[in-house]
Specification:
Largest sheet of chain B: 4 strands, mixed
Order of helices and strands of chain B: EHEHEE
Helix content of chain B: 25-40%
Number of strands of chain A: 10
Structural class of chain A: alpha/beta
Distance between the termini of chain A: 46 Å
Largest sheet of chain A: 7 strands, mixed
Shape of chain B: globular
Strand content of chain B: 25-35%
Number of helices of chain B: 2
Radius of gyration of chain A: 21 Å
Radius of gyration of chain B: 11 Å
Oligomer: heterodimer
Distance between the termini of chain B: 22 Å
Chain lengths: ~375, ~80
């Protein structure tokens, strides 16, 4: 079995329009990662000089991450993924409040990581779960929920890009601690104040995969939901991935510095894709038209098979994601589109990453009308 | 019980075929008549109401065929 990498990594202009699933590594992260792989191998808890060096790199990663996110260093924990940060963050708050209420409430359009944590809470911690509906734009219904142990509402939706009205959510939540899954926003939006715990994912901002960030606000009632150990950080367990977390922090710094410029560029790309879609009949564009992630366009095309659409666009050089059922990755349609009452078949999610070029967007816009029309003819619509 | 003018057997068909069948058959019915789509496609539950919204037709709810397969009702409005 070969463990070498057979091809060069994707470059700018490769037609990759799925940064919402995972972004290519930021050049700033690549440099730091290679250096830190050489220097950051030792156990940061030991007392020798190699260990002290690893510890210094780990502490630097935490300090840089805290600075970029506007939080305290002791509020930052590194996890092995965004999903792990969601599980620990949400369930830790639920545990911290279990004497008040064992009821976990989350919006209907949360990432599957929140749904799986909620199922676990019900199945193994004797908890109760309620789901808050959303409107047709995917915005959470702010009808004041019954008293709950913990409330989970995302910063922005990963499938349709709607930014949730978190300031209002925090006000309405009152005493109930709020968990915010901020993974989908990457480093594109600042995290508004008011959360008790939050989760982020480094490969959504050009850091390496396998790094999540768990934030727990100082003073929040958070208890470890899973076993911990006596290592550097009491909220997580296991040997620290020092090179990866430092590279993640380097990518985050670079992206925060580039944020406004990239957001402006992406908003222009998104407008271009929407303009192209307005010329295609029977296409529904999803999400809030105003309060939204700048780099994401999601739409459904009536009478089109989602899997065929992704395949045909791929053949023409554009890599996109789909939330439709009957695609290779899912038997059920996207729970987000279902909750919004949106059309689920023929769905495409286009997301720009740092390496997206104007040519990538133009190639997609050139292909889309023909591909949709061709697939409709083929299916007898 | 809704009076069903036509029943479309879409068992075993994957999305978007049940919705395409619905779109192709509805014009054959008089305005005001109801068509039923029998389908085990998991996308039909969201997509048939969404099609009705996009096309200005009336989604008249869901019941079950004799074999228990979901049946979605649509009334032609225009």
């Amino acid at each position: 079995v070969a463990t070498t990498v057979p091809e060069p990594p994707p470059r700018a202009g490769s037609g990759y329009l799925d940064g919402g699933s995972s972004e290519p590594l930021h050049p700033a992260a690549r440099e730091v990662l290679l250096d830190a792989l050489e220097l950051g191998y030792a156990d940061p808890l030991r007392l020798h000089s190699s260990a002290r060096r690893a510890r210094l790199l780990l502490d630097n990663a935490r300090a840089a991450t805290a600075e970029c996110l506007g939080v305290r260093e002791d509020e930052v924990s590194f996890t092995s993924s965004g999903t792990e940060a969601v599980h620990r963050g949400l369930l830790g708050l639920a545990r911290g409040r279990e004497r008040v209420s064992r009821r976990l409430v989350h919006s209907a359009v949360e990432h599957s990581a929140v749904f799986s944590a909620a199922r676990w809470w019900r199945q193994y911690a004797d908890g109760a779960v309620d789901v808050l509906p959303v409107d047709h734009r995917g915005r959470v219904d702010l009808t004041p929920p019954e008293p709950a142990g913990v409330l989970a509402v995302q910063l922005a939706n990963p499938e349709v890009g709607t930014v949730q009205p978190l300031a209002e959510v925090f006000t309405r939540a009152g005493e109930t601690p709020v968990f915010v899954d901020a993974c989908a926003a990457g480093a594109r939006l600042p995290l508004p104040d008011g959360w008790s715990a939050a989760a982020l994912s480094a490969h959504k901002w050009g850091g390496p995969s396998g790094v999540g960030v768990l934030l727990v606000r100082k003073g929040a009632r958070w208890r470890p939901p899973f076993p911990t150990d006596d290592r550097v950080d009491p909220r997580v367990a296991g040997f620290e991935n020092v090179p990866a977390v430092l590279a993640a922090a380097a990518a985050l710094q670079a992206r925060v510095a580039e944020r406004d410029e990239l957001n402006r560029r992406d908003a222009g790309f998104a407008a271009q894709v929407r303009a192209c879609l307005s010329g295609v009949p029977d296409v529904e564009v999803h999400g809030d038209p105003e309060a939204r992630l700048p780099h994401l366009v999601s739409f459904s095309s009536l009478y089109v098979d989602g899997e065929a659409l992704v395949g045909e666009l791929d053949r023409r050089g554009s890599a996109v994601a789909s939330g439709s059922a009957c695609t290779a990755s899912a038997l059920e349609p996207s729970h987000v589109l279902v909750a919004m009452g949106a059309l689920t078949h023929g769905n495409v999610r286009v997301t720009f990453s740092r390496s997206t070029t104007a040519d990538d967007v133009e190639a997609l816009c050139a292909a889309l009308p023909q591909v949709v029309a061709g697939l409709r003819t083929r299916s007898g619509a | 019980m809704t009076d069903v003018a036509e029943e479309l057997d879409c068992r075993g068909l994957r999305c978007p075929l049940p919705v395409i069948r619905l779109a192709n058959h509805l014009p054959n019915l008089p305005v005001g008549a109801t068509i039923a789509v029998v389908t085990d496609d998991p996308a039909a539950r969201p997509d048939i109401p969404a099609w009705c919204r996009m096309r200005g037709q009336e989604y008249a709810g869901e019941d079950r065929a004799n074999d228990g397969v979901p049946r979605f009702l649509v009334r032609r409005l225009h």
